[in-house]
Design a protein that fits this description.
Blueprint (H helix, E strand, L loop, with lengths): L12 H10 L7 H21 L9 E5 L5 E3 H15 L4 E6 L6 E2 L9 E9 L10 E9 L17 E9 L3 E6 L4 E7 L4 E7 L9 E3 L10 H12 L3 E2 L5 H11 L2 E4 L10 E2 H14 L3 E3 L16 E2 L1 E4 L1 H8 L4
Parallel strand pairs: 3-5, 11-12, 11-13
Antiparallel strand pairs: 1-2, 3-4, 5-6, 6-7, 7-8, 8-9, 9-10, 13-17, 14-16, 15-17
Helix pairs in contact: 1-2, 2-3
The structure holds 6-O-phosphono-alpha-D-fructofuranose.
Length: 328
């Protein structure tokens, strides 16, 4: 683990991204332009989440999103904040959100729209009313020259050029990868900046802990049930928050494995490939971990649709392999 942030080397998100870009002669500063918009939007979302009980933003709006899920007020607010902050970045051609059935086609590649940003504006939002950590997840793709604009974003996760999340928890933490390892920032409210706290983060091994919703055990396949029985007999601990960003963040920092397997109700899995599984898989693998969708590496899945769902097994290599060993 490289340099930790200390008081005498205050490094902000922007300066860290610019320093990273210096390492790539061809870099054009485009990332910092996109990531600064994400930084601005997530600071604003964090403020709204922290005021949830004070301002009238908790609860649902009696409408459902494309997923058929009841939209929380903060889902809509978070979505609008991101669309507003990213929408005027002239190097973004397409924005795609969990909350919107179809992508927003902002500008053609020929007009400078070279990137797509896909995001879940507020994942786990049903937990907001009980003050459990929720998060924003984002994925950045470079748009191809040719092809239809509808298909332009249907790229496998190994094509992502950046991925990250912001966890609105006891602190507001931004975890980011641009393909050269994983860096972690914490929002210092006193200066309003995300400051670097960990560079080159590596996911630990040796932590026998799994994260799965065991309420669905009767819906799991026999091989997942066999893994769970084995884990119970081998002194594993279990932690499950029910908010993907919080569960994955704990696995990233402490090690272990996060599992959302196929169930009878959702045989393809529940989590969304393009803006949940893919960005989380890139982060975990960039931190030296592993991710698979049952028996296919998450990052190799060729998406057929923006809101496609997948199963997910991701975390420390030793812990993912312990699950995979049981898969038929
Ligand atoms: P379940 C939140 O609704 C979410 O999309 C993820 O954040 C979380 O990991 C998962 O669903 C929890 O699902 O079925 O265990 O409630």
């Amino acid at each position: 683990m490289e340099q930790r942030w200390t008081k005498d080397n205050l490094t902000s998100l922007q300066s860290n991204i610019l320093a990273e870009e210096q390492k790539h002669p061809g870099a054009t500063g485009e990332f910092s332009w996109i990531l600064s918009a994400i930084s601005l939007a997530t600071k604003a979302i964090g403020n709204k989440v922290r005021c949830a009980r004070i301002e009238d933003v908790i609860g649902d709006i009696e409408e459902t999103n494309v997923q058929g899920e009841t939209q929380q007020k903060l889902d809509v607010i978070a979505n609008e904040l991101i669309l507003r902050c990213l929408g005027d970045r002239e190097n973004i051609g397409i924005l795609a959100s969990e909350e919107n059935e179809t992508p927003m086609f902002l500008r053609k590649r020929a007009d400078g729209g070279r990137y797509a940003v896909l995001f879940d504006p507020l994942d786990g939002s049903s937990n907001i009313d009980v003050s459990v950590g929720v998060g924003t997840i984002f994925s950045v793709l470079r748009l191809p020259d040719g092809g239809s604009r509808e298909e332009a974003i249907l790229q496998p996760g190994n094509q992502q050029v950046a991925a990250g999340y912001v966890l609105y928890g006891s602190s507001t933490v931004l975890v980011l990868t641009t393909g050269n390892g994983v860096d972690m920032f914490v929002l210092d409210q006193s200066i309003g900046s995300f400051v670097l706290v960990e560079k080159g983060l590596k996911i630990p091994t040796g932590n026998n802990a799994y994260s799965i919703n065991e309420a669905y055990t009767n819906q799991f396949s026999d091989d997942i049930k066999s893994y769970l029985n084995w884990a119970h007999e081998n002194d594993y601990s279990s932690r499950y928050i029910g908010s993907m960003v919080a569960d994955v963040h704990r696995v990233l920092l402490k090690g272990g494995v996060f599992i959302y397997p196929p169930t009878k109700d959702k045989p393809e899995g529940k989590l969304r490939l393009m803006y949940e599984a893919n960005p989380m898989a890139m982060i975990v693998e960039q931190a030296g971990g592993k991710s698979t969708a049952y028996n296919t590496p998450v990052l190799e899945i060729h998406p057929k649709g923006l809101h496609q769902r997948t199963s997910v097994i991701l975390g420390s290599v030793d812990q993912v392999d312990a699950v995979v060993d049981f898969l038929s």
